[in-house]
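Deliverable D4.2, example record:
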Amino acid sequence: MVAFRGDEPVDVVRAEDGMLSGLDDFVAKHSFSKGIVGSVRNLTPGEEAALGRLQFPLLRFSSDTPVPITNRYRTPETLGSDRLAAVIGASSLRPGKDLLIIDAGTCITYEVIDARGNYWGGNIAPGMQMRLRALHEFTARLPLVDAEGEVPGMGYNTETAIRSGVLRGMKYEIEGYIKSMRSKFPHLEIFLTGGDQINFDTNIKNLIFTDKYIVPRGLNKILDFNSK
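Output generated by the structure prediction step:
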């Protein structure tokens, strides 16, 4: 849950119990006049009950919701709300720019929007924890390795081989996307968001904007767009 004042986030509360605990206090603290819900999963009965108690208009973000960009995704009904919100959030910060938005979380998503506001789609790949777990669960003897630890150029034992394979693989993958998209959009700017930390070379870091509020920013823009 994120509270905005105008275009800027001013407060955030994370509810881990699936019941939106703390929602009533959060709402009372900020005296909201409107809100938006965007979720990539079905809400639990407890969450629906909590939202039903709200005393202000609540926009349910779906594929039918008008958005302030041109969505050229061929199956908008299957597009995750977080993916589209991230694109809109990044575009609001860098309007009129060709953008690549990389969200490194449970999955890594790559989204492209051009300077004219056309969202062309993106790709989805396994995230860090998914890769580490897959190597353990889909093999007979490979251990489950923690992401924290040494990441040598080439692993010198099974643990470092797995960790380096996953983390360096993600790094090279992302750098490859940046290089590929820059060949199509020479003035491309890159946004990185999500919970996973990726260590880039200095020349790559200088090309990247980081903002952990990209998705909430996008939802806030969608709410404003539909309130006018």
